[in-house]
Automatic annotation (TrEMBL):
<dbReference type="InterPro" id="IPR006077">
    <property type="entry name" value="Vinculin/catenin"/>
</dbReference>
<feature type="compositionally biased region" description="Acidic residues">
    <location>
        <begin position="203"/>
        <end position="216"/>
    </location>
</feature>
<dbReference type="GO" id="GO:0008013">
    <property type="term" value="F:beta-catenin binding"/>
</dbReference>
<dbReference type="GO" id="GO:0005737">
    <property type="term" value="C:cytoplasm"/>
</dbReference>
<dbReference type="InterPro" id="IPR036723">
    <property type="entry name" value="Alpha-catenin/vinculin-like_sf"/>
</dbReference>
<dbReference type="GO" id="GO:0016477">
    <property type="term" value="P:cell migration"/>
</dbReference>
<feature type="region of interest" description="Disordered">
    <location>
        <begin position="200"/>
        <end position="227"/>
    </location>
</feature>
<protein>
    <submittedName>
        <fullName>Uncharacterized protein</fullName>
    </submittedName>
</protein>
<dbReference type="Pfam" id="PF01044">
    <property type="entry name" value="Vinculin"/>
</dbReference>
<keyword id="KW-0963">Cytoplasm</keyword>
<dbReference type="GO" id="GO:0016342">
    <property type="term" value="C:catenin complex"/>
</dbReference>
<dbReference type="GO" id="GO:0005912">
    <property type="term" value="C:adherens junction"/>
</dbReference>
<dbReference type="GO" id="GO:0098609">
    <property type="term" value="P:cell-cell adhesion"/>
</dbReference>
<comment type="similarity">
    <text>Belongs to the vinculin/alpha-catenin family.</text>
</comment>
<dbReference type="GO" id="GO:0051015">
    <property type="term" value="F:actin filament binding"/>
</dbReference>
Length: 297
């Protein structure tokens, strides 16, 4: 299905481009406008089919992880565009960030709409709506302001005005872009954390497997851990039943989160598929972005 959807997009792409070129040659022609509109609808339908095919092959958690990585990459390129005084590139990457974030919101709301309404689903919805209704509009407004300011800087450079003032403006714009991107990235991370809180133990590997993998090889450390465990068990026996239940509830949440984390880490293996290799590359890009932004902070 994925190959078929890709083939359909490849076949229609040249025709869409030609229709756009023809409309540019004669933008007032009603026939060409109608022709462009027809190809536009066909293109969107086929891209939607391709998107659905990709979604069916990628797990929801992997989709969120890759989306985060792409947003981080777009942020890095946006900052680089400011440094290079390229307003067009900055505007394009800001659009990428908004588009990916909107898709994350749509996917999460669709996914969470299939589960019963409870505190978990409400927390996920709250985090998602915060990104869609609060963070993204603020990011869009701030990005437009930065693009406008960068366009003015480009004009100043062409006119040969004061370079020191331009450098100060660039520094300020980089700081604002970092702040705006961080807000979006943190909001996407909050969505992932909210989704993680309701994972069932059956979704990941057993406790015993991870406990065996985590045992230290040193005998003294093992004996010390055993002694500490006995002391903790004695304390637990003396607690009221209500306190025991509350502690056990928190432990269960922690174990689910821990198992999910270890499961996710275990998937990033050198022998993995192309998606895993891409995720590793995105992780490296995120690290490079961190090193890059340190220079401006």
């Amino acid at each position: 299905v994925l190959r078929y959807a890709t083939l359909l997009c490849e076949k229609i792409a040249p025709q869409v481009v030609n229709a756009a070129f023809l409309l540019c040659e004669d933008p007032h022609s009603e026939v060409l406008k109608e022709n462009m509109s027809t190809f536009e609808h066909v293109w969107f339908d086929r891209v939607k089919m391709l998107t659905m095919a990709v979604d069916s092959l990628i797990s929801f958690d992997d989709f969120l992880a890759v989306s985060e990585a792409h947003i981080s990459e777009d942020c890095q390129q946006g900052i680089q565009a400011i440094v290079e005084h390229n307003s067009e590139m900055l505007d394009r990457n800001a659009g990428y960030i908004r588009g990916r974030s909107v898709r994350v919101c749509d996917m999460v709301l669709n996914e969470i709409g299939q589960v019963p309404s409870d505190s978990y689903s409400e927390n996920v919805k709250r985090a998602t709506l915060c990104l869609r209704d609060n963070v993204l509009p603020q990011f869009k407004k701030r990005a437009e302001q930065i693009v406008s300011a960068l366009t003015e800087v480009e004009r100043t450079l062409k006119d040969g005005d004061d370079g020191n003032q331009t450098e100060m403006e660039t520094k300020r714009e980089v700081d604002e872009m970092i702040y705006a991107c961080q807000k979006v990235y943190d909001a996407v991370t909050d969505i992932r954390h909210a989704l993680l809180m309701n994972r069932n133990p059956e979704d990941v590997d057993s406790d015993n497997e991870y406990e065996e993998d985590g045992l230290p090889s040193d005998e003294a450390c093992s004996q010390s851990s055993a002694s500490e465990m006995q002391n903790q068990q004695q304390i637990m026996r003396q607690l009221p039943e209500e306190s025991k239940r509350e502690i056990q509830k928190q432990i269960d949440v922690f174990k689910i989160t821990q198992r999910k984390f270890e499961y996710e880490v275990g998937k990033w293996d050198e022998t993995g598929n192309d998606i895993i290799a891409l995720a590793k590359k995105m992780c490296q890009i995120m690290m490079n972005m961190t090193d890059f932004t340190k220079y401006f902070i």
